[in-house]
Amino acid sequence: MKTIAKSRLLLLAAAAALAACQSVPYTGRSHLVLVSAGEEKKMGEQAYAETLKKSKVSADQQKVSVVRQVGYRLAKAADKPDFQWEFNVIEDDKQINAWCLPGGKVAFYTGILPVTQDEDGIAVVMGHEIAHALARHGAERMSQGMLAQGVGTVAGAFLGGNPAGQKVFEQAYGLGVGVGIMLPYGRAQESEADHIGLIIMAKAGYDPNKALDFWQRMEKATGGKGGGPLDRYLSTHPINSDRQKAIRGWIPEAMQHYKPRN
Ligand SMILES: [Zn+2]
Fold first, then answer.
1. Which site among 9, 33, 169, 184 is 20 to 30 Å from 139 CA-CA?
2. pTM above the 0.85 mark?
3. Is the pLDDT of residue 73 over 90?
4. In sequence order, what E strands does the chain have?
5. Ligand 1 mean position to 9 CA, how many Å?
6. How far apart are CA 63 and CA 61, in angstroms?
7. Which residue among the candidates 40, 86, 129, 140 is catalytic per the annotation?
């Protein structure tokens, strides 16, 4: 009896895992996502509102308008009708950082703007960050955490507004401890965001070749160290020849989507 019950349970778990297996747009990689897109979006919107409340949202029209201009172009290319896109600049010159939460909630810190320099540079970062959201990397990380804790906690823990669910979300996105300080994604996720980001920027009319220039400036600006998702990744895996080679390798694919704007 016990063995039968156990194997039935295993079958159920396998079925649940199969149902939750999804494939990442553009790369086709299959990954396990145990959080519904709706719940993920709701948590993203809540975390965004809270972060903006605690931050100094920039009213510098020059900075804000260029970030929004690039943002809306890339949002259109990302083609996510269920996202309600929002783009804000947060005044903090020390943060060489940017992120995009589920639902299309984007923040750029003023500290990254001297490194992005122009619309092309903003498009590189924006593409990379939007790619994390499109590929549902945060939900993937949450799901890995949930699996580690036992799949049984899924049903209750992730209902929107549930403090326990919100906490896991904030940990996954690193928003809990200090505003805007994000935990690094995994190396494979960063690489995937580089790849998808190039396609999104190209679709939006930005030359993906500019990505190589940006990442070189980024390396100079951070000296291989820093405090954001982009540069923290660089600090552990500096923009070495491998990453540059990977980006170069994806550029021909991205160029197939490229139509210069104007
Ligand atoms: Zn990243």
1. 9
2. no
3. yes
4. 21-23, 30-32, 86-90, 98-101, 105-109
5. 37
6. 6
7. 129
